[in-house]
Design brief:
By secondary structure, the chain is mostly helical. Helices cover 69% and strands 4% of the residues. InterPro entries: DUF2160_TM.
Length: 91
């Protein structure tokens, strides 16, 4: 059934983390409904919108890292996680 995709441990972790993020966001929305606010992004966003922006930014950081350097991808992941935390907290 899933033979069409090359399932590696990295791929499985990626999808598991995305699933956990979605479940966490759903639970947070049920327990504490989101309030739109404006942070340093200069646009009014909700918690879910900030998560989406953070995922996009992290993806672009990793793509650009691959394009312009041969250094370890873990460094790009660390930078992406730090930027994501900033966006989620203050964006």
């Amino acid at each position: 059934m899933l033979e069409w995709m090359a399932w590696t441990p990295t791929t499985a972790v990626f999808f598991a983390v995305i699933a956990m993020l979605l479940l966490t966001m759903t639970m947070l929305e049920i327990l504490w409904p989101t309030v739109a606010r404006q942070g340093f992004l200069k646009i009014t966003t909700t918690r879910g919108e900030r998560l989406f922006i953070a995922l996009l930014v992290t993806g672009w950081i990793n793509i650009l890292w691959i394009a312009f350097t041969d250094a370890s991808q873990w460094i790009a992941l660390g930078i992406g996680l730090a930027v994501s935390a900033l966006i989620l907290a203050r964006g």
